Task: structure prediction
Amino acid sequence: MTSTPEDEPGDTEFSLETYRREGLISPPGAEPAAHDGTGRVQLSFTVEDKEAPATQRTVRVPPGVSVFDSASWNGIAIDSTCGGHGTCHKCKVRVSPVTPVTRHDARTFSPAELDVGWRLACLVQATRDHDVVVPPLVTRPKAATVGVGRQVILRPAVQKRYVELTEPTLEDQRSDLARLLDAIDDLEPVPDLHALRRLPKVLREADFKVTAVIVDEALVDVEPGDTTATRYAIAFDLGTTTVVATLLDLVTGTPVGVASMLNKQQPFGADVISRISATMLDPAALGRLQVAASQTLATLAEQVCREGGVDPAQVYEAALAGNATMTALLLGIDPEPLGVAPFVQTTATPPAVLASEVGLELHPGARLALFPALGAYVGGDIVAGMLATGMDRDKRVRLFIDVGTNCEIVLSDGERILSTAAPAGPAFEGGAIRCGMRAADGAIEVVKLGDDVELGVIGDVEPRGLCGSGLVDAVAELVKAGLLDATGRFATDEVAKEIAPTLADRLTYIGQERVFVLHRERPDSDPAESVVLSQRDVRELQFAKAAISTGWTLLMEQLGLEHGDLQQVLLAGSFGSYLSAASAVRIGLVPQLPVLRIVAAGNVAGEGAKMALLSIRERAGALALLEEVTYVELSDRPDFNDRFVDLLAFPT
Amino acid sequence: MTSTPEDEPGDTEFSLETYRREGLISPPGAEPAAHDGTGRVQLSFTVEDKEAPATQRTVRVPPGVSVFDSASWNGIAIDSTCGGHGTCHKCKVRVSPVTPVTRHDARTFSPAELDVGWRLACLVQATRDHDVVVPPLVTRPKAATVGVGRQVILRPAVQKRYVELTEPTLEDQRSDLARLLDAIDDLEPVPDLHALRRLPKVLREADFKVTAVIVDEALVDVEPGDTTATRYAIAFDLGTTTVVATLLDLVTGTPVGVASMLNKQQPFGADVISRISATMLDPAALGRLQVAASQTLATLAEQVCREGGVDPAQVYEAALAGNATMTALLLGIDPEPLGVAPFVQTTATPPAVLASEVGLELHPGARLALFPALGAYVGGDIVAGMLATGMDRDKRVRLFIDVGTNCEIVLSDGERILSTAAPAGPAFEGGAIRCGMRAADGAIEVVKLGDDVELGVIGDVEPRGLCGSGLVDAVAELVKAGLLDATGRFATDEVAKEIAPTLADRLTYIGQERVFVLHRERPDSDPAESVVLSQRDVRELQFAKAAISTGWTLLMEQLGLEHGDLQQVLLAGSFGSYLSAASAVRIGLVPQLPVLRIVAAGNVAGEGAKMALLSIRERAGALALLEEVTYVELSDRPDFNDRFVDLLAFPT
Result:
């Protein structure tokens, strides 16, 4: 991760709606306190520690938020095993002034304790300023750093509880399930039929010493003995091109296996539109695309389990971030309405399904959680990316761009968040480019022009073509050298000889078309057999970058922002990670900013999927984004074409 | 249904715990009002009517219960489509004194309306005495009479909503699901994957005029056009011997098809113990028993659908009442712990499953709701029976007896409810009886002794044997005639000739054993070729009836009740329906009471299953019974054998 002076975490103050959507105004059904959601209340935390002096920390939150959540979102740990659902009775704090006593408080504390302000933090709604004393932690919560510097306190949906039960007698004929659940004081899962079928046998064979396996609200299994040390989950980034799987050890929060491969849907077309078209032309294609996606995931799941030395039956959950089309195809949902105006999804919030329903052979009760989507072209991958980059948690003015055939753009001014999609076309993936190719061995990925041409080539082999980052570099360097003018036209031979005499002979023609030779075997090689950038390639790139910059320009106008207001630009996706920030600025793909403000964010979709597996609170945060982020449809904007034409030129 | 002077409905006052278990203290998570659950508050309802003068009605309920529930349980209808879940905003009433304003109230009423006490009845907790004005009903709720005179207001888990949606545009890109659910204001279902897959196609083919099909919390389908008039469900009574299916039209609450057949598990044994034994002897038997049960249900489902002229795909739900063993076997759960001490169930509350998971080919999203059980031998069939007979709603002192190989007994003194099971053995089903047979053609079901023997025979054919009710009649009549003494011994020839000269020649011997000839072709027929009652048969019956009467005797002792305190005895099950009340009293199978207090209740298990389909509130009531009813285990009671020996004799 590139670290820049601007890369400090922002404030984490955020809106009441965030909390409400995340179900964090607990308990559900309770009447809200008398406030209108505006303003803030102040909580002054005194955090005690067994081995160190207490520390002080003051936070401001919207009225009505629970003390537990206020602490949690501000990185103040309070004991809890239920994650703030009012069931574990462990999140004890002392509040002043005292707040009403709930029935859970009455069960947890003595009258004397209640008098001095002891309460369960998850049930105290902060409706005014409070002092809160947090006692020393009984168990230090584990945390993991994921995404763009996000610190996540581990609270996976997958939970295990080891219990040693008393055996039934004629005096104690509780059912096997009641006996098990009575011994688990902080969770109230509903059993899967599979778990019920295993329960009587496993209990008796294991002398009533068993481990309950819970995923979210479901009891998915009982295992003999103590298996709490083995809990795994797989995060999938289901890209149109590349699919990545990460096997996570949920006990430690660390990855134990990573694998990636091309999406097996490739034969149906390179981009989402061609795959949607395939389903419109052939009624059998949807089924075949579904199988192809399933097989891709299954192959990767097998690989990461092998790599991690993990039995697939110990993988109890998976999370998947994919764009709306990939998600629909995986679920066997007709994607046609995504592909034609007015571009409508079947659902923005696909329900969790059994992993087996999409062909994954993990634990039979394993669930697959799917990221929600903002729109047909700002899908679950982008929501995951927003989660990983903390787009809603950070008060800085930030622009998030995922560059690809379909380019997704998110802009936050610290209060409001807008998103849109721009159809950039295939140029960045080497499509429609004369010598274009994917970022694979032999692809030119870096271009520097000085007295001569310096190339960076993937795999250190003879250059075979030009990938997206090389294309951007080449154009940017040619603009800088004056060999391309602001309108995107190559210089004449005369001008070239004058301003760049050592490069001028590379400007030549293939047939009628002007080209710049990037790589040739010998100076006298036939340009048609060399790696060149053609006039038409430059036009393709101009169209692509104009589509993207029109997107962020319109969003910035909507929020009244100038380029200089942006504190950070995040370039997401694998392409974004390889792009030269300086080149991106030079061609106008990103706003005109100091390059230190432009950060490659990496595979943020995969990171978001990991966060969802590590923390149910982060998962709720993804859902909250659907309310917080406004989706802006560009395709019917009357000002789109004007801006687009303006932005075809390179910045001068 | 036999109507008796005692058969008036009792009070419907019941405990706070009832409400709490049924989730009726709404909203969940809300803090309870300041009360300790004792005492009652009084609600004075003024029920307005468009066409008639308003009526007055006063009810007393535990503090904390919602006004809506207080009304509903007392038969006062208030408009509602969500069933009191706070979502439909239709249950408008005027309360005085006024109560706090919830956010739902604030959205529903104007400030002026709030000032004069308008509130949503489901959100008003009655914590003190109130006057409540109920405005005239907008829609008159439909009700059906089921069970033992129970009037059920129709609110099935299966709901349909016809909607005409606006088509999506670039200005309105809501997802298909959001568009659909936004148009349904009173329910918030989660979609099945099947429904999601159908959604985009059905919406567009039906010009966005569709019917949403909801089962409980799940959106199971969308259907083109308006299909609200077709909603069906099947109630199953899965007996060890006989299985009954009733197809219900959920729109009218009426049955449209009924079918019954023998349980296909019969080859594995006649009673639950032999079927459990089968699974212990052969590991493959569980699977085969599961298939046999599934096939039985599937065959009946097909029959009732054919009879009712209903497409199975229009059946969206099924409910099943069965004993604990039948339920376990159907779900493929090992029944062994049910069959051996300490007699433990895997779960008392089996989760709803997809009907397809038990082999039923109904609508692909159809659910099967399973009745909860009180214990290994007081199963879901009895809970269903208690629901159908209103055991928890009726303030009378009542005894419920389901006579069978395993006999279940429930006793209520109007406050407390106890239940137990008594192992009666197979005598009542004709097992272990010399001329015993099932209640089928040729079975003697009625016996009267006067100067001669009068027989009632099933099917009006030549008598072939003796079924349970005939057995009880025969013994009772012989006791009455003095031909059997109180200890169960046949009279000597001398005594017989003296007290019953016209019958004495029927008292004879087969080998060494004393028999009474019930039916012979001619007076000189060989007794061994006639239908007789043997001394050993009498002993079998004595053991069976002593087991049962020990059960209710111990329960009555526990509640401090005498025979005369009982206001009603309900005889459940098909056998109970045919039993002569007078004979049952005479042999001591039931307490010594006027016969008018003894009521044949019919197939109450099946009736309970129907109620669960017609009303989600009744279904919640079944679950509440688990908390309200105390299960008494008799097998380890030191006083059991003493009582049993005492009760072998016939009452004198």
Remarks:
- Chain A is about 30% helix and 25% strand.
